[in-house]
Amino acid sequence: MNWWGGNKTFKFDKLVTAWVTRGNNGYQGTIGVGDVAGVNAKQLNNLHRNNLQIRVEGDSIVIGVKRTDITDKMKMNVIAAVGSNQQWNDDLPNAGSAAIDLSRTTPGVREIDVGRNNLELLKEYKTLGDRDHPVIAKMGSGKQTLILIPGMYSGTKSFDSFIDRNETQYKIFLVTPPGINGTPSRAMPARGTSFSELSWTRGLERDILNLIRKEKLTKPIIVAERQPGAQAAIELAIEHSDQIGGVVLVGTNLVQSFFSPKDPTRKTPLALSDRAGFVDESWAAKWFKYVTPETWKNGDLAKQLLSVDPARAQTAWDELESALLEIKVRYLCEFWASDVTRDFDKLKVPVLALLPGFDEKFFADPANAFAKPAFLDSWEMLVPKNPQLELLRIPNARMLVLDDQPKLADETMARFIERISKLQKGQ
Q1: pTM as predicted
Q2: How far apart are CA 162 and CA 113, in angstroms?
Q3: Strand partners, 175
Q4: Fewest Cβ atoms closer than 10 Å to its Cβ: which of 51, 191, 203, 265?
Q5: What is the pLDDT of residues 94-148, one digit of tens each?
Q6: Distance CA 230, CA 151 (A)
């Protein structure tokens, strides 16, 4: 039957109900499972009564029910709704259903622990001081200066081979964003600070500008891999074009649009002005704050996205997942709360994006469905509007583009950098 709330776009055939009040002996009221006949007769638990486990911890509510009390199948679609008395709230139904496949169980998936707080660092964790610079390595003997910035989803060795191949061609500064690859992070912002303020990302921008000034670098090229480095590089290209010569983005995905929870059809994109509140109040406060490390790893970036070489992909995945969960949550939520593309029309320096081309076999796997819209389609929609932006799809490469296709990546970057050098010389 159709849902009786404001959202009429979906149907259900079983209803799990916990319409309760809390008493001395736990929760009491209408508890159980009903079918369409029971719901029509206003007997919401006509199939099973008092068969649910109800658990409330903090602002989380967990309802436990045996699968066999709902269906004899191993796959089902589930939609939740909450409310008070006889008034249901459509916010959760509007978000759509969640597919559950119990034939492919993964330990730890969809677990939260309300005893955790991933939005704060442990008291004993030693942070990087506000005036201290992050870990910076200097190498190379070439004339053109590059500032390399590994991403949160890169691993510790993502630039190693590139540096080995190009030490004589470039002067290189490798800037590691605080908190990744075993380095200390900055202190968390004051409680209540919106992720949209990009506190850590903009701290990285200051680190890069301080490096440029300290070393008296003349318009270096920034080469960045994914968040937070990519976001920092793009903002610098827009706000400080007098300080940098250009930007190369390697295997970088753009933030995808969210659907507005106010639109039950899920067709209206969430406005940027509403994105911050959505991330702060929903994703961060209700999920990422409590998510367990096991659940994070099970739902995080899949290894096959990293490299065409399974061994390289596994090594990078192990390295990037070794970072503290609190640090990964901070950087990821800042990424989701931002949209650097909104100011792309203000770009004043050339930007080259090396896009992982993947391959048809990769795209044919439903587990990789998000890769094409995130890593390719979103970029290609920007090109007509941004004359400073150049895209090159690197075939048979994944996120670690510089390792998967080193010759093509190096040659493309060299041509781009040479073009910028000629522009700077007025040729």
Answers
A1: 0.80
A2: 41
A3: 136
A4: 191
A5: 666 777 877 765 554 557 787 899 999 999 999 999 889 999 999 999 999 999 9
A6: 8
